[in-house]
Write a structure and sequence with these properties.
TIM Barrel, 14 helices, 12% strand, alpha/beta
Length: 391
């Protein structure tokens, strides 16, 4: 009897996890570590994903819904109201017990928990919070927990989620009220989606860190459906840049739109995955590399060119005919050179305290992608590209 109940729970988890393929917190893959508490047949039910924690550590993450029943009718969503597919729902204690067993057995090291909305955002948020409370208190789970904040959640619920989770998120889905209407006509961009992100930042600024899980503030992320509302890249990156500066957004995720059967957008053309890739590259330039929106190489239609890395496109315009001297440039300028990242720039600054950098081989030893950087820099006054023949 117990075995059958466990199998039913795992079957339900498989259905719910399968609906989370559009949610981002790492790239999806099937978990490989062999668990000790499930049979070979059972372990195939659980879909896990690699994810990177705020501290950079990589873990195996279970991404799932508490329920795929939803009263909202978002046009792109696989579990929208009225769509014909098998629904499933966990009770908070049921899911907490199952995940605790998975965690103890080594099948998952963390969990990203979301839900369809049933009975309103406040009621659904309460069920997510109840689940997190049971995990943390009854099962003494101390691992990574990412909690979704539901549209319409109250400020007190946001605060409680922050006290239980390592990461909280609100999916904005689109860059503005007008664009959101094309994707999710019954969601309210400012009051339901943007406001909770503002509350998170307000709470961080007014409540000491020791009152939160493990004495740290949770990180905050959001996600956009790239191309789902016919928005431009400039629109997406403008709101991302604003979020970085005003609500301390840890990361924006971009999910290239692809049509789902039996939804209003099922005949809409899928977005080229390269667009998603370019948006990620550009968002990192804005967040980590000191780039401004004006620096990005937008086309006349306010989109990034798909054929070009945005950092390299900027360098072609600004550095190809005016290369930087590698021995004099500051970190802000070094990280704008293609092939040189944040760690590479630090390595250059450290190395040149000892001696001048005079050839590409010395850059290679520092972990720099020397051939990629060569056209845009000088080594002790000489054009680096002329030295490629030395290799």
């Amino acid at each position: 009897m117990f075995y059958n109940q466990e199998m039913d729970a795992l079957s339900k988890l498989n259905d719910l996890s399968d609906q989370m393929s559009f949610e981002a917190d790492g790239e999806p893959r099937v978990s490989s570590p062999p668990p000790t508490c499930f049979s070979p047949k059972e372990k195939n039910h659980a879909i896990t994903h690699p994810a990177q924690l705020p501290n950079g550590q990589k873990i195996v993450l279970l991404k799932t819904l508490l329920s795929s029943a939803c009263e909202r009718d978002c046009f792109y969503c696989p579990f929208r109201a009225g769509r014909d597919f098998r629904r499933a729902t966990f009770k908070p204690d049921e899911f907490a017990g199952l995940f605790s067993k998975m965690s103890q057995g080594g099948l998952a090291e963390g969990v990203f928990l979301s839900s369809g909305i049933a009975g309103g955002g406040v009621r659904t948020q309460d069920k997510l919070l109840d689940t997190a409370e049971i995990l943390r208190k009854k099962h003494q789970y101390r691992g990574y927990l990412h909690l979704k904040i539901m549209p319409g959640a109250e400020k007190g619920q946001v605060y409680r989620a922050m006290q239980l989770a390592d990461r909280v998120s609100v999916n904005l889905e689109a860059p503005s009220t007008e664009r959101l209407a094309k994707l999710a006509p019954h969601k309210i961009f400012i009051e339901e989606l943007l406001q909770p992100l503002k509350w998170v930042e307000e709470i961080r600024r007014t409540v000491p860190a020791f009152k939160f899980w493990n004495g740290r503030y949770p990180s905050t992320v959001t996600q956009f459906v790239a191309g789902g509302s016919d928005e431009s890249d400039l629109e997406l990156l403008s709101i991302t840049n604003w979020l970085n500066k005003n609500v301390s957004l840890r990361r924006a995720y971009f999910s290239a739109f692809h049509p789902i059967r039996d939804t209003p957008l099922e005949n809409k053309t899928a977005v080229d995955p390269m667009r998603e890739h370019r948006l990620y590259q550009a968002s990192f330039l804005l967040r980590d590399y000191g780039f401004d929106l004006e620096d990005l190489p937008f086309t006349d239609l306010s989109n990034l060119p798909l054929h070009a890395d945005p950092k390299q496109a900027w360098a072609e315009i600004n550095l190809l005919h005016k290369p930087l001297e590698i021995n004099n440039a500051g970190k802000r300028d070094l990280i704008r050179i293609p092939g040189i990242g944040l760690k590479g720039a630090d390595a250059i600054l450290s190395a040149r305290r000892i001696s001048k950098l005079q050839d590409l081989s010395s850059l290679k030893k520092l972990g720099i992608l020397a051939e990629r950087a060569a056209p845009y820099l000088l080594l002790d006054g000489r054009k680096a590209a002329l030295q490629l023949a030395l290799f």
